[in-house]
Write a structure and sequence with these properties.
By secondary structure, the protein is an alpha+beta fold. The chain has two domains: about 50 residues, no CATH class; about 30 residues. It contains one helix and five strands. It has a three-stranded antiparallel sheet with strand order 3-4-5.
Amino acid sequence: MAERKGKCPKCDQLISSVTVSAVHLNSWLNTRRYDGVIYTCPHCSVILGAGTDPVALAHDAVDEIVRRLRKTRSERSASIVPK
Ligand SMILES: [Zn+2]
């Protein structure tokens, strides 16, 4: 299968990989800062895109699942204990 390459919109170089750098994403909905990444051209460093950090997003999802499971378990235990 042939390798697909796009062109950088600024320097017109063919791009087969991008550079990923960590950034903070500031939400206008609340004061929380999220972990994000920017994707830049390896030739001229123009920003090609930005988004949430997929690794941080996975960790946050696992942490939230564990937190909810613990909460559910503690609520279940509390209902068994006689008053
Ligand atoms: Zn470029």
